[in-house]
Design a protein that fits this description.
Length: about 425
């Protein structure tokens, strides 16, 4: 079966043409569209870019039979009664001191753990501030907004993998805990319906279009070949460590330190620990060296190539850095990393770069160790995904060393988009 997969990531939008017999036949990508100086994105520009990429793939490879969509999770976009956007897309990065406080309030009031950046928290914050768009009749994730535009819909039901990311979701009931949210003061009239089973929501150029899947679940689906023995470490703009478990097995209910249990496919759930640092923390390191070179020499440099040279020359260091530049999922407002054991012998750029990368890998390993031992038992391999893992061999080696497991990759380079295409093909067969 030939399908198109679209991934609306935080930084970029990717489209793949997937042939079930041959795998990924082609891929295209384009930058995403943040509104300058904000954590919000331009929804209609995103839709326009996604459609352009899809049309280019169709011209190159012919018509598809289905379209799968993967989307950055947690964020929300308000729509009117005609299904048109009436707000920017508030991404998962929409977090500050106020939303962190409201996340705590909602978690306590509903019994559902939530964090700043979750759609429910963003919605409640705007509601409290009297800032809900007056024309708004509901909200959706950006992936479902794309599905609506492709199929000329005014409404669509959300897949559980997206709905759960808003917060206030009951995994057992596969729906929002609307009563608990209502008691907490949240206006639940804006929430979408939920479809527990993937179904076509309409068609585009004759291809069946499915509601958006969460990007974590989509990339896991494409990256992990043996879910019972592999873990997934994804490093993109952020980073995640994920494990799968069958619902029929002994469940763990919740995870400590901000961990999440997320709906998945085939009677499974994902246990996830997320970092808000990930690839953007390494990007900030490159920016630091580029800025330093510009200030000292007046010259612009390829900082990523420079980091490669520094890391090749410095295999180990006694310097210790925790690059916690962006806080954590648990507390978005408490930011600030640490540097320890700075002495004359390690006061060099190479030591700084190596310690920084080790710190990134250490955070991922510490997240993994928060999973119950019973859930970690039998895991022998890391299925890597995301450009931060695929392209940064130094981070990859440090992850292998700390986890004590090899990192392997599937044949799919854009795992979230490929996973969306594969999930759409599977859903057609149901």
């Amino acid at each position: 079966m030939k399908t198109i997969g679209i991934d609306i990531g935080t930084t970029s939008i990717c489209a793949v043409f997937y042939d079930g017999l041959k795998g990924c036949a082609g891929r295209l990508s384009a930058p995403n569209h943040f509104l300058e100086g904000t954590a919000c994105q331009d929804a209609d520009r995103i839709v326009g870019t996604a459609i352009r990429l899809m049309e280019e793939l169709e011209r190159a490879f012919g018509p598809a039979e289905a379209v799968g969509i993967s989307s950055q999770m947690h964020g929300i976009l308000y729509i009117d009664r005609l299904g048109e956007s009436v707000s920017p897309f508030y991404t998962w990065k929409y977090a500050d001191e106020n939303t962190s406080r409201l996340a705590e309030e909602l978690s306590e009031a509903t019994g559902c753990r939530m964090h700043a950046g979750y759609g429910t928290v963003t919605h409640f914050s705007l509601q409290r501030a009297g800032a809900l768009p007056p024309q708004a009749a509901g909200f959706v994730n950006i992936g479902d907004y794309l599905a609506m535009r492709l199929c000329s819909l005014t409404r669509t039901a959300a897949d559980p993998t997206i709905a759960a990311s808003f917060g206030g979701f009951d995994l057992e009931e596969q729906d929002f805990d609307r009563d608990a949210l209502r008691r907490a003061g949240v206006d639940v009239s804006y929430y979408p319906e939920v479809s527990p089973v993937p179904r076509p929501v309409g068609s585009w150029h004759g291809a069946r279009v499915f509601a958006a899947f969460g990007d974590n679940q989509a990339e896991f689906y494409a990256a992990v070949r043996r879910p019972q023995s592999q873990i997934n470490v994804n490093v993109g703009t952020g980073a995640q460590v994920s494990l799968a478990q069958s619902v029929a097995e002994r469940g763990f209910g919740s995870l400590p330190d901000g961990g999440e249990v997320r709906p998945f496919v085939r009677g499974q759930r994902l246990y996830v620990q997320a970092s808000v640092g990930g690839g953007k923390a390494y990007e900030r390191l490159a920016d630091f060296f580029a800025e330093t070179a510009l200030l000292l020499t007046g010259q612009r440099i390829d900082a990523y190539a420079g980091l490669e040279r520094l890391l090749e020359q410095t295999e180990a260091t006694s310097l210790r850095i925790e690059p916690s530049l962006y806080g954590s999922r648990e507390n978005a407002i408490l930011t600030g990393g640490r540097m320890e054991n700075l002495v004359e012998q390690n006061f060099h750029p190479g030591d700084f770069a190596r310690a920084y990368v080790i710190g990134m890998a250490r955070e991922l390993h510490q997240l993994y160790l928060t999973f119950p031992e019973e859930l970690r038992r039998g895991r022998t391999q890391i299925a890597g995904s995301g450009n931060g893992m695929r392209k940064n061999r130094f981070l990859r080696r440090e992850v292998e060393r700390l986890f004590g497991m090899p990192v392997v990759f599937s044949g799919e380079q854009e795992e979230a988009a490929a996973g969306a295409a594969m999930l759409a093909a599977e859903a057609v067969m149901l």
